[in-house]
Every structure is written in C-alpha cells, then in structure tokens.
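Hi Q.,

Before the meeting this afternoon, I wanted you to have the flavin mononucleotide prediction in hand. No need to reply - just skim if you have a minute. The sequence and ligand are here:
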Amino acid sequence: MNDTNELTKKTISRRKLLGAAGIGLGALPLMSTQVFAAANDASRPPTPYLASTAEKKLDIISLDRLQVEARGAIPKAGYEFVSGGAGDEWTLRENRRAFNDYRIAAKRLVGLSSDDIDIKTRLLGLDMPSPIMVAPMGAHAMVHDQGEKDTARGASLAKALYCSSGASNATLEEIAQATSGPKWFQLYWNNDIQVTRSLLTRAKAAGYSAIILTADALGP
Ligand SMILES: Cc1cc2nc3c(=O)[nH]c(=O)nc-3n(C[C@H](O)[C@H](O)[C@H](O)COP(=O)(O)O)c2cc1C
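Predicted structure with the ligand bound:
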C-alpha cells in the first residue's frame, strides 16, 4: 500500500523489525505477537499486543480507501508492519505505479458473456482458475487475532493459490486446514538440517504441493 506521508516516517523494515525483536528467522514459524510490542525499545518489557478481533463486511472501493479503513482497525505497530516496504520502499512505490500500466477495459454491447472469459492458467503443474496467488506474508496476527488462518480461508474462497509464509504466526498445519485450495510453503532454510527437514516433512504431510525457497535469508 502506498502512502507518501507514511513513507517518510518509516525507519524500520519488516525484517529489521523481526531482528530488533530478537527473532532470528530460525525461530520461526511460531512468533509471539507480544514481542512486537517491544520491538523498538529493548529496555521495555514485552506488553500484550492486542490485535483486532473485529469481523465485518468490507466494501472495497479502492486500495486507498481500504488503507484508510485498515489504519483505523489495526494497532499502529501492525499497520506500520503491513503498509511499509523494504529499504527506501522503491519496490512498494513501483508496484503501485505498475498497476496503472494496465487498465480494465469494459466491453459492453459486443455479445460477450462471462462464460466467454477464460483466465485459467497452469503453473508448475497446478491448474488454477485464475493467475492470482497470495504472496508469502508473515505475522498476520499483527493485524487480526485469527492471523493467517483467515487469510488462507479468504484465498480458498477466492480459489487463489495460498503461499504460506515460513514466518507465520499460525502453524503450517493450521493454515493448511484453513484452505481447501492449492497451497505452497515458503521455507526459510535453517542451518540446523533437522529443523529444515522437519519443516519440509510437516509441509508435505499437511498437503503443500511445492516449496518456495527463500534465497535472501539463508541459514539464519
Ligand atoms: C506484511 C508483509 C509480510 C511479508 N512477509 C513475507 C515473508 O514472510 N516472506 C517473504 O518471502 N516475503 C514476505 N513479504 C514480501 C511479499 O511476499 C512480496 O514479495 C512483496 O509484498 C512484494 O509483492 P509484489 O511484488 O507481488 O507486490 C511480505 C510482505 C508483506 C506486505
């Protein structure tokens, strides 16, 4: 999400936030949301982090309006966590800009029905009704107390591929149970081969059909 006022204020990236909280990626996937509350001040004892438990229907008109609603519903630390990008947030800005390269052209009165529209695709042997997938994103309990379980449930309802982050608050099994749709597991390779092996074994048993190997955070 893009917000120029927010951009100037941000000083901490997601990965730095985890690091400041004393969370090496090797400690993942289970992270305590309590720790995040103290992430910016090591001398402060962890205080309970109260993510939203609210549930309501959202009328999504635009990303900008959704961002305003999100800011009102998510604790400040969680909002900063999900709305920020790495480094000077070049990718975040570029991603939002790039969406504008494509426009949705309404086709009316040309005899086109929804049955004529086929956006199926095949990816690594997986037949997908649309080329839409949820990128691996961790620590959803910063946003809502149901964390990744609800995100995975939403992906399933949208028939989208869910890429489960190795930095999730929910266990990979809980996430797998929450979606009946296709799912991949993002692995943070751990120097302790037993930890890595255990994660891979559990992911396979839980029904993940592919592994996303994280190349920029190897062997923490
Ligand atoms: C809140 C949040 C958490 C993220 N957590 C992870 C993560 O745990 N692992 C990971 O590889 N990428 C993580 N990412 C990065 C995303 O997977 C993705 O690469 C990034 O949002 C850019 O996506 P885009 O190029 O599709 O817009 C996270 C992104 C966000 C916004």
